[in-house]
Amino acid sequence: MGHHFGSPLVSRYWTEACNDLIARVAKRWPDKISPVCQLPQSPGVRPEEWVDELDRCVKDLGFVGCNVNPDMAGGREPVTPSMASDWWYPLWEKLVELDVPCTIHASASLNPAMHLTNSYYIGQHTSAAVEILRSRVFADFPKLKVIIPHGGGAIPYQWNRHRGMHVKEGLEPFEDAARRVYWDMAIYDRESMELLIKRVGIDHVLFATEMFGAVNAVDPQTGRNFEDIVPIFRSIDWLSETDKQKITEGNARQLFSRLP
Amino acid sequence: MGHHFGSPLVSRYWTEACNDLIARVAKRWPDKISPVCQLPQSPGVRPEEWVDELDRCVKDLGFVGCNVNPDMAGGREPVTPSMASDWWYPLWEKLVELDVPCTIHASASLNPAMHLTNSYYIGQHTSAAVEILRSRVFADFPKLKVIIPHGGGAIPYQWNRHRGMHVKEGLEPFEDAARRVYWDMAIYDRESMELLIKRVGIDHVLFATEMFGAVNAVDPQTGRNFEDIVPIFRSIDWLSETDKQKITEGNARQLFSRLP
Questions:
Q1: For the whole prediction, is pTM greater than 0.90?
Q2: So what's the ipTM on this one?
């Protein structure tokens, strides 16, 4: 994505080129790849200026979802408004109109005190979820479909911090709010996967990993790549085969209504 | 703390007033309170300008530790250098010279997309730990004592993300690096406490809660305040009494060498 580079026009050209390339790949292997697009976001530029690319990708190119960058300036100025703000509403309207989900995922860290994959991403995805879940976004857009990546950053681990904040601020119980969104399982060990599933519920977890992502390395303890998490997920013995099928396929099929 | 307010001089006056007040309270109840100070940090101002307050507090007032704000501008400009940078070295030198530990804890979020206690704090403490543990700080200051608060933000939950990053970047194993610092247990449920203890080890966890902090509210599921975590900690049945004593007292007595 790299939304912090260049200008809104550079972001548009780059986004269209990337999305066109993804469309070609998906057309070549339709049984293996379902395309998801990026959007021509740019620091300080409002969603009404860039949401049209979602129309093009979904209607003309057969895309089934999109990614949304919650912080286009990479942790520097201009900061992007909270995802609780109606600044984002044109995007939510378009997602609901097209019935496609979005994943919230940041792009680049321009703050030298924040490691890209291990601090900035985790922090941004935590923040985005906190903002959306304490806002009136789902009251205004009950059919909106949002995916929080990487196991929700810090949220399942800091669970009672969020439950307590929701009680203190008079919001709906956090355990209910957390079930308004979906959480991907791109975390890389069994105990953390189990914590995620227990906290947000089997119906709200999507299997995910990366190729090749933040942890593209061999774990010296197992001899396997850290990202090779299918065996770890399979080893969770308190999940039934039906539960596992939901997490690896069923939930995604419900969420991505445009999947073939 | 509020280091983002005013100027370096305002920060100094405010810090001295706060520390003097803490010293009075500690002197009044010496069997209950051991004083820890803040430092007159200010956005963009180097540690050599404010580390003298640590001397005053420890040598003249009997303080046993201090707090360090990793991001004085509250998530805005000017961003503070990474804790891996030698920008921070005058602080580490002074801490080692006085043999007092520091807790890394941020103060105010000026980014409207980041909830203070639930996003910004968690993100800042994660980032600070990531930076320190991947740096040469402990090679240069082997006797430095650092405490990461609130269960380490996201780190124990994202454990293999950190292990994998350390392998990928050729750093020491993350599970070893994590034992160079101490982690406080101000997280508010049993499963998260257990995850923390298992990952960083019994010898590196310090019991902690807040009064009154981020989750000053009654949990409708238990009828108890979220911050009332002694019963939760006591219920962890696989810890021996010796283990529990380390976490509630022994580790802290080793770390805070100036405790009476």
A1: yes
A2: 0.97
